[in-house]
Description:
single chain; alpha+beta; 2 domains; 5 helices; 4 strands; elongated
Amino acid sequence: MRTPRERGQSQQLDLYPQLQECPECHQTMHERYHKQRWIVRLDQHVKVVSHFLECANTACTRPAVVYRPQQEDALALRGYTFGLDVVARIGELRYRDNLSISKIREQLQAESPLSISLKLDFGHFPRNQIAGKWQPDEGLIAGAWEAE
């Protein structure tokens, strides 16, 4: 049975697309919907609320286009709970230091104040994202944290 995570020291991060007005008709876009997800980073849990915008002008040539925040992709892979910092740290311990899964678990428990449960399948992630070759756009990440 899964145990609930302690999220008392969490932070909420509201993300919006970079475009706030429609590129076609230049009117302010309105929120179509939002979604929330939890991302586990090495230092804290983050509640990410992504706001999706669309043009509300019925005369616009792009009324059905939904704009999403790009900053979310800089924090975690789509569909995954762990942040890219956790994925990069696991890849570093596994491929650079050649640690076993049990040693990685011990190392993460020693480094992080959070409980990170590991059920690793290294064949599931693209190797270039685990091995640390993927470099996030620092401007996107900084912009996301400064927007808070």
